[in-house]
């Protein structure tokens, strides 16, 4: 009894430290937990039924393992198969009950059901065993038989009987996905996408079809058109978020630099995320899909539920199919259920499908590689490392996932070019994880996984063949030798495998447990990096340490300054439930000393007068001086001094049109960049858009040789004409495309950046005329304002006003170089006065503007016309006010009554019989206008 009192003391002290209101809230929460999960019987003896148990404090893994965990409800509440057999273990238990069947349901579903009345209805997603699902007192709305899932509708009173059914294995809310955050730009420098595209120009994703699972993207967008494959699963509505995701992933760059995605050659298809389960296998097979992007989320979920099981099952079966998920933007949220309930801002992934083992979950960073505050982080519900890697996604993790999917498409395309087949998704994950960049001096962590995406390093490892494939039998070991050169700063090896799906709500998702070990030539043994999954903030924050990993189907070993010779890698099948388990290992070397420019790379185009990040990768430490040269290094202009080597430097690029070299000078050496270019970006404007031709123009740049015009042809911006003038005529009869772009050509022959593609028909310019406005003045004159797109070949501008006999010329003036003109009509007539402009060209062609109108009241506050009227009365008023229009026939019967609010109203009178009517306008009860009108 004394020992029991000692064990209860921490909980007692905690209660004593709480305020009365806090104590009451805690007692209420505890009562809810007991009511939710406990049967009537308090358990103090062995039982075959599951047990609802609360510990005084979070228990250690070894104790839980002995008790047979069925489900972690919180860090202290568990559903167990049995109580500890030893008295020491039992003294750690605060109470235990026989559990009811509610443990099979999610916490969020139970909360919703508790708010309902017995007669209220609810929709529930069920997981079931057996071939088909039936149950009394429920209505099945639909089933997904391949994943043994059903959505049913039932009354709240029927819930206990339903969840207690033996064939019901799990239950959840019917959840609906939504985009995480809209991303509006791409930065290819942070994750070395620009380096990958420059070093591997033949790898563009052309052999890959990517599915974007969410709403439908804009299939007519010029960066996506021509590569879209329609499917029966696509959503019926377009979504801007989906368009941006598709563009980040595979945009062709036709619209401009921000429209160039990671894999611009990939084909695209779409499926709706109305169903959160994986799409049917036939969908992936029929389109040849080996990659699907998921930039969406639902609420924070903490368990290995039906969707997570389904994705693991599908990937393990398909093997070459890679799913990429955004981690979510709930990084500031504290979990409210599960093992990590209340344990700081951890374990807040948005959706249980992101708890799957065989998928990639991508977190988000800022441009400086720091994890974004709002980016969701791990661990997974069972302590696994999630997200696997992070990437820069402006304003969220949606873009981070899309960019990573683009890199996966490049890896898949490269593997097909090298091997003729699609790669295993386990190999893809291993390549991305092994090449990811960890913070200096750090190991894996629950915030950033195994590091930041490095596109170029992943492609380099694949093309260099720095990977091995193997299989391991139960209890057996497979070994590899990797030749390690001398003078390395680090060698890194990553093991990945596609693991069989665990059972629904498994307390630990890992099924086949493989153990990797490395032995260096000097005889030292190295184990993988592991993290402390214990549900406490200080445990989750602990640095990675070396140990045996029995949680993850990814293991990584890194060795600093390894001895030269053969690195002996062994993979042991510690626990393999299948006949054999395929796996992949990927390895890479960091040499010392090393330095490589990452931006700019060879041929980079830097926008003049715009900031750009200067980036490099190096094993050097300290700081250096930056400078640039425009004369092949003969002279250098200072940029900045003592720039830290471990951070990028944002350079405000000067206003140049020149070939440029950059230099970073250290104490005893200097590194000169490959040649790059600085040039302004031109802007296209529409001069005119007439029936037979159009004209676009741009600003003149000093020092250029000419300009290269591009036209959108068959989905690609294609060279059209070289020009020395600053305008381009477009004959519509021979050129159907409306999209054009322009780039400057230097005297040395190199070409500057292409302008954004412009559709000349969408710039608000007609045949020369942008707009004609007619604005009355306070003294009843009318100011006419004309805006033109261009005055090329224009001779004169003629101002005209409509009169009873047609159009009358008010004045004329010669066309000059200005595109804006004004004219004053000093004597307009009363009513709606209409104006237009007549343009005369030097070749005699005449162009008319649209009609513009002004309302003029000279003698009256209110004017009603025309009179006689045929179909429509116009009412003009000097003031905005609510009035009543009343029409009566000659016998005094009201035939029409309308409320009018604007200064100009149009009233249809088509249905009135021909005749004479009294027209009155009332302001409140006061008649302010009265006159007879004739309806013809």
From TrEMBL:
<feature type="signal peptide">
    <location>
        <begin position="1"/>
        <end position="24"/>
    </location>
</feature>
<dbReference type="InterPro" id="IPR000209">
    <property type="entry name" value="Peptidase_S8/S53_dom"/>
</dbReference>
<feature type="domain" description="Peptidase S8/S53">
    <location>
        <begin position="206"/>
        <end position="451"/>
    </location>
</feature>
<dbReference type="InterPro" id="IPR034058">
    <property type="entry name" value="TagA/B/C/D_pept_dom"/>
</dbReference>
<dbReference type="InterPro" id="IPR051048">
    <property type="entry name" value="Peptidase_S8/S53_subtilisin"/>
</dbReference>
<keyword id="KW-0732">Signal</keyword>
<dbReference type="InterPro" id="IPR036852">
    <property type="entry name" value="Peptidase_S8/S53_dom_sf"/>
</dbReference>
<protein>
    <submittedName>
        <fullName>S8 family serine peptidase</fullName>
    </submittedName>
</protein>
<comment type="similarity">
    <text>Belongs to the peptidase S8 family.</text>
</comment>
<dbReference type="InterPro" id="IPR008979">
    <property type="entry name" value="Galactose-bd-like_sf"/>
</dbReference>
<feature type="domain" description="Secretion system C-terminal sorting">
    <location>
        <begin position="864"/>
        <end position="934"/>
    </location>
</feature>
<dbReference type="Pfam" id="PF00082">
    <property type="entry name" value="Peptidase_S8"/>
</dbReference>
<dbReference type="InterPro" id="IPR026444">
    <property type="entry name" value="Secre_tail"/>
</dbReference>
<dbReference type="Pfam" id="PF18962">
    <property type="entry name" value="Por_Secre_tail"/>
</dbReference>
């Amino acid at each position: 009894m004394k020992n029991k009192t000692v064990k209860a003391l921490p909980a007692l002290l905690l209660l004593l430290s709480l305020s009365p209101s806090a104590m009451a809230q805690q007692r209420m929460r505890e009562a809810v937990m007991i009511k939710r999960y406990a049967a009537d019987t308090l358990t103090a003896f062995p039982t075959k039924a599951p047990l609802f148990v609360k510990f005084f404090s979070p228990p250690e893994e070894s104790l839980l393992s002995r008790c047979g965990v069925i489900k972690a409800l919180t860090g202290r509440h568990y559903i167990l198969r049995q109580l500890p057999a030893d008295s020491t273990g039992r003294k750690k238990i605060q109470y235990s009950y026989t559990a009811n069947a509610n443990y099979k349901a999610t916490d969020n579903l139970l909360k919703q059901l508790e708010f309902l009345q017995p007669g209220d209805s609810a929709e529930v997603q069920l997981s079931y065993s057996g071939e088909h699902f039936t149950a009394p007192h429920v209505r099945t709305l639909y089933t997904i038989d391949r994943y043994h899932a059903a959505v049913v509708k039932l009354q709240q009173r029927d819930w206990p009987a339903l969840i207690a059914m033996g064939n019901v294995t799990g239950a959840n809310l019917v959840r609906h996905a939504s985009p995480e955050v809209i991303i509006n730009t791409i930065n290819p420098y942070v994750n070395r996408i620009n380096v990958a595209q420059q070093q591997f120009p033949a790898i563009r994703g052309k052999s890959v079809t990517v599915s974007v699972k969410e709403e439908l993207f804009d299939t007519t967008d010029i960066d996506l058109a021509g590569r879209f494959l329609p499917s029966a699963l696509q959503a019926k509505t377009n979504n801007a978020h989906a368009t941006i995701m598709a563009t980040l992933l595979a945009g062709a760059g036709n619209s401009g630099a921000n429209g160039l995605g990671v894999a611009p050659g990939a084909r695209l298809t779409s499926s709706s995320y109305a169903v959160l389960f994986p799409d049917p296998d036939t969908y992936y097979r029929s389109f040849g899909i080996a990659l699907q992007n998921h930039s969406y989320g639902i609420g924070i979920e903490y368990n290995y539920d039906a969707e997570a099981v389904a994705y693991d099952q599908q990937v393990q079966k398909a093997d070459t199919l890679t799913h990429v998920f955004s981690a979510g933007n709930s990084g500031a949220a504290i979990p409210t259920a599960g093992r990590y309930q209340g344990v700081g801002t951890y374990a807040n992934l948005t959706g249980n499908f992101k708890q799957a083992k065989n998928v990639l979950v991508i977190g988000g960073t800022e441009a400086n590689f720091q994890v974004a505050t709002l980016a969701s982080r791990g661990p997974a519900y069972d302590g696994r490392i999630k997200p696997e890697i992070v990437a820069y996604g402006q304003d969220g993790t949606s873009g981070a996932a899309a960019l990573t999917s683009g890199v996966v498409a490049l890896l898949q395309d490269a593997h097909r070019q090298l091997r003729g087949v699609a790669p295993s998704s386990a190999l893809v994950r291993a390549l991305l994880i092994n090449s990811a960049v960890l913070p200096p001096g750090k190991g894996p962590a629950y915030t950033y996984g195994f590091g930041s995406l490095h596109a170029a390093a992943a492609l380099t490892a694949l093309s260099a063949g720095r990977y091995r494939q193997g299989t391991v039998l139960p209890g057996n070991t497979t070994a590899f030798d990797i030749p390690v050169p001398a003078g390395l700063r680090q060698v890194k090896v990553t093991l990945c495998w596609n693991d069989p799906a665990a059972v629904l709500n498994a307390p630990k998702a890992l099924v086949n447990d493989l153990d990797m070990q490395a032995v260096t030539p000097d005889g030292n043994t190295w184990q993988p990096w592991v993290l402390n999954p214990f549900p406490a903030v200080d445990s989750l924050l602990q640095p990675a340490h070396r140990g045996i990993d029995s949680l993850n189907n990814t293991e990584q070993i890194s060795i600093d300054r390894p001895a030269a010779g053969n690195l002996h890698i062994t993979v042991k099948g510690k626990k393999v439930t299948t006949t054999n388990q395929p796996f992949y290992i990927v390895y890479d070397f960091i040499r010392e000393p090393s330095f490589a420019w990452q931006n700019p790379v060879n041929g980079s185009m830097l926008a003049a007068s715009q900031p750009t990040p200067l980036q490099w990768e190096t094993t050097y430490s300290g700081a250096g001086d930056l400078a640039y040269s425009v004369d092949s290094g003969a002279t250098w202009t200072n940029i900045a001094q003592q720039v830290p080597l471990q951070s990028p430097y944002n350079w405000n690029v000067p206003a140049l049109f020149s070939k440029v070299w950059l230099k970073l000078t250290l104490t005893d050496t200097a590194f000169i960049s490959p040649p790059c270019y600085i040039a302004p970006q031109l802007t296209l404007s529409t001069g005119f858009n007439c029936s037979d031709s159009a004209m676009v123009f741009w600003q003149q740049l000093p020092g250029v040789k000419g300009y290269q015009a591009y036209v959108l042809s068959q989905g690609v911006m294609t060279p059209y004409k070289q020009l020395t003038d600053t305008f381009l005529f477009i004959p519509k009869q021979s050129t159907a495309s409306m999209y054009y772009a322009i780039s400057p050509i230097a005297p040395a022959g190199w070409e500057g950046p292409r302008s954004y593609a412009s559709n000349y028909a969408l710039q608000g310019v007609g045949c020369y005329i942008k707009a004609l406005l007619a604005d009355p003045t306070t003294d009843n004159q009318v100011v006419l304002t004309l805006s033109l797109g261009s005055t090329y070949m224009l001779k004169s501008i003629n101002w005209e006003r409509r009169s009873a006999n047609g159009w009358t010329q008010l004045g004329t003036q010669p066309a000059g170089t200005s595109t804006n003109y004004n004219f004053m009509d000093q004597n307009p007539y009363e009513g709606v006065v209409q104006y237009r402009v007549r343009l005369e060209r030097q070749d005699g062609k005449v162009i008319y503007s649209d009609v513009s109108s002004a309302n003029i009241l000279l003698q009256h506050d209110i004017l009603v016309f025309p009179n006689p009227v045929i179909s429509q009365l116009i009412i003009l008023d000097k003031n905005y006010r609510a009035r009543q229009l009343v029409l009566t026939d000659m016998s005094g019967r009201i035939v029409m009554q309308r409320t009018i609010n604007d200064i100009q109203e149009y009233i249809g009178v088509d249905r009135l019989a021909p005749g004479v009517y009294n027209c009155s306008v009332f302001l409140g009860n006061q008649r302010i206008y009265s006159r007879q009108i004739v309806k013809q």
